[in-house]
Amino acid sequence: MDPVIIVGAGPVGLALALALARHQVPSVVLDDGAGVSPEGARSTVLRADTTEFLTRLGYGRIAADGRALNSWRTLRRSRELLHLPLPEEELLHLAQHRLQRGLRDAVSAAPLVQLVHDSVVVEVEQDADGVSVHTAKTWWRGSHLVGCDGPKSVVRKQLQLRFPGRAAADHYTVATVRADLPFPGEARLHRDAPRLLHAGGSREVTARPLPDGVWRFDWRLPVGRPALTPDALVEQLRATLAGWHEGEVPPYELITSADYVVQQRLATRFQVGRVFLAGDAAHLLGSLGMQNLDEGLRDADNLAWKLALVWHNCATERLLTSYQQERRSAVIARLRAVDQAMPLLQPSTPLLEARRSVLSGSLRRNATLLSDGTLGRGRLGAAPAYPGHPAQARPSLSPGLSPTSPGVLVPDVPVVTTDGTPDRLRARLGRGFLVVLVAPGTTVWAVEHWLGAGLMPQLTEATRALPLPAELLVTEAYPSAVPHTVLLIRPDGHLVAAVQGCRPDDLWTLADRARGGSAELPTPRGGRDTVPGERVPADRARA
């Protein structure tokens, strides 16, 4: 079968290619640039699950490239509204150019990924057997195509899909600054700081640490106001630093700055036949601290395993319809949550400004909500759940779900493989489904003792008989699960079901539903050799 074609070599496109390679699916990544990742002001805050996702894809130095946040603080004037200590490695702040370089290095070491630079897509065609892509230089043939080519996506335009939304939901001036601040490792949002108000440009600033003594500052500006001039930016920076240093401006180095307007947009569809959209090509969201890249990486993780099952003939094309159902619905719920929270947290009209005393009370009551998007919590930031049949169920953003609720992202717990190797649950994701038995006392005994005891023999055979790739693991304990619970987990870490005991027919049925409900057991395509990026003549591609 032909490789999967990915248009766009940003973080989402590269992550998708690496995720497909982990599933033994070849891909061609068409990059319209020269493969250079210049240093800039853009950065992202990654949650623990997305950091782990990128680590298992081969970006091994990600922790060293970023800075773990140790706490979050929200202030208004001189009053603290919220202080949250953060567990180690829960949140990682990373410059986007470092992320891009790390993923490119991982791709260069992945034999199943072919990265092609200076390849501007001109035309996309699809038929019943695959997709043909015409660049300025040649034609490429693939089994499927994924557009990860950003807000101005050529793929989306080729599909004639609309991209409606708000062209200016928020406005920021950002800068990266090297300075010695009195709260190392802490991220903070400060609203109505007296010196900041006196500077006259912005009423709100967010500071997040990066490695090597560098910080990213985001000053929120009124929507529609022109960008800060260089002199006004320096005034804002000096006022911000003085406000955190008892009136004194410490030594600093302004490294880079940028002005950007946050858009809120959503493509009308994420799939048309064999062509898909992911990342910024599919959605834009970033108000109230939400991380659009985080959502783009969830797109990649969700789509990769589904494409892999279809590519290996372990599922039908019907499974791929669940990508749009799950991911687009999750983004819609996220955007709806922003629309509900914005009036409480971001007053923008003269009438609301005149009622600041009321809004100050609202801000105190909603200080946690103001931080949820950045911290990856609640309706603005927590991972969605995908309950039930993948082609029918709507995602949930409820933070109160149990770890054994169908569709939730599973917590990371210690596990043991059937050869006795200790590991972490999330480190085993991304190759196939996981069957996990909760069996207290497992680590006390050698593997040869418990492998043939209790449920293990029956569960071993049931796992081998599943209609898709699967691995059997054992864990001492899992939150909310009693002993002898069996968990079936998707390759992207979302729980299919938690059942008591092992009934092979029930486990098979659950796995079959998770792959889209195929009526028959397909024969895996298996060993056919496929050359990533095979070129085809134009006349054959058009046929």
From TrEMBL:
<keyword id="KW-0503">Monooxygenase</keyword>
<feature type="region of interest" description="Disordered">
    <location>
        <begin position="514"/>
        <end position="543"/>
    </location>
</feature>
<dbReference type="GO" id="GO:0004497">
    <property type="term" value="F:monooxygenase activity"/>
</dbReference>
<keyword id="KW-0560">Oxidoreductase</keyword>
<dbReference type="InterPro" id="IPR050641">
    <property type="entry name" value="RIFMO-like"/>
</dbReference>
<dbReference type="InterPro" id="IPR036188">
    <property type="entry name" value="FAD/NAD-bd_sf"/>
</dbReference>
<feature type="domain" description="FAD-binding">
    <location>
        <begin position="3"/>
        <end position="331"/>
    </location>
</feature>
<dbReference type="InterPro" id="IPR002938">
    <property type="entry name" value="FAD-bd"/>
</dbReference>
<feature type="compositionally biased region" description="Basic and acidic residues">
    <location>
        <begin position="526"/>
        <end position="543"/>
    </location>
</feature>
<dbReference type="Pfam" id="PF01494">
    <property type="entry name" value="FAD_binding_3"/>
</dbReference>
<keyword id="KW-0285">Flavoprotein</keyword>
<protein>
    <submittedName>
        <fullName>FAD-dependent monooxygenase</fullName>
    </submittedName>
</protein>
<feature type="region of interest" description="Disordered">
    <location>
        <begin position="380"/>
        <end position="405"/>
    </location>
</feature>
<keyword id="KW-0274">FAD</keyword>
<feature type="compositionally biased region" description="Low complexity">
    <location>
        <begin position="395"/>
        <end position="405"/>
    </location>
</feature>
